Amino acid sequence: MFLAGASFMAGFSGALMPGTVFVVVVLQAARRGWKVGPQIVLGHGVLEVALEMALVLGLSAFIGVQLVRTVVGFVGGAFLLWMSLGLLKASRHAEFPATINGSKSVSSHPVLSGLLASSVNPYFYVWWATVGNMFTVKGLGIAGLIGVAVFFLSHWMSDLSWYTFLSWSVSKSRRYMTDHVYRIVLGACGIFLVILGFIFVYGAMSGDI
After folding, report:
1. List of residues 6+ apart from 77 with CB closer than 8 A
2. What pLDDT does residue 105 have?
3. CA distance 100 to 97
């Protein structure tokens, strides 16, 4: 239960930070309606499945090594703390964009757009190399491949829920997602990541991870 909840909340650390997928969702939702959100997340998820499989195959031989678990826990926890600072800072003055001025229209299929937008975003790979890696190790340690599946599905649901809401908001109007609400969401997730980051760093230092 903790793994599912933590994975779901941690997933917002990547989803909420404006990036390539965020921009594509905003652009296409304004033109095509709310349904592009889930479609773009599907494309995003295809690349994530490939990365998750690579992590599982690469880490399976080392899952029992405490040093590997300690390093993953410490680096992942530190990265969560770093991201939390960015979210808390953004929560002070962030503005929710309904349009992206000067951007070209996106004409490709939403699923393909989601895959391409993710593939060109360096932050995407950093997240999976640290936080995603950390949760994969945790999932394998708790319940093997079932634990990995719980992590991945919970993480993917955070992407799906946020980007579906984002595309729905943009397609309808800004009244459902004001700057004030957006800042509250960013701040709440930032606080959660501070707590989660300290849990993983402490676990790595104490050898309990």
Report:
1. 134, 196, 197, 198, 199, 200, 201, 202, 203, 204
2. 41
3. 7
* CA–CA separation, 89 and 136 (whole Å): 28
Q: Token pair of 191, please? A: 């606080």
Q: How far apart are CA 13 and CA 43, in angstroms?
A: 19
Q: How confident is the model at residue 200 (pLDDT cuts 50, 70, 90)?
A: confident
Helix, strand, coil % over all residues of the chain, rounded to 5:
80, 0, 20
How far apart (Å, rounded) are the C-alpha atoms in residues 49 and 178? 33
pLDDT confidence band for 170 (50 / 70 / 90): confident
The CA–CA distances, whole Å, from 170 to 61, 182, 202 equal 45, 13, 40
Tokens of 54: 């690579």
pLDDT tens per residue across span 100-140 = 443 444 457 899 999 988 887 767 877 887 888 888 888 88
Max distance between CA atoms of the chain, in angstroms, equals 51
Identify whether the C-beta of residue 52 lies closer than 8 Å to the C-beta of residue 148. yes
How many Å apart are CA 148 and CA 162, to the nearest integer? Answer: 21
CA-CA-CA-CA torsion for 59, 65, 69, 70, nearest 10 degrees? -150
Q: At what angle do helices 36-59 and 20-32 cross, to 10 degrees?
A: 150
Higher pLDDT, 111 or 93: 111
d(CA 167, CA 26): 6
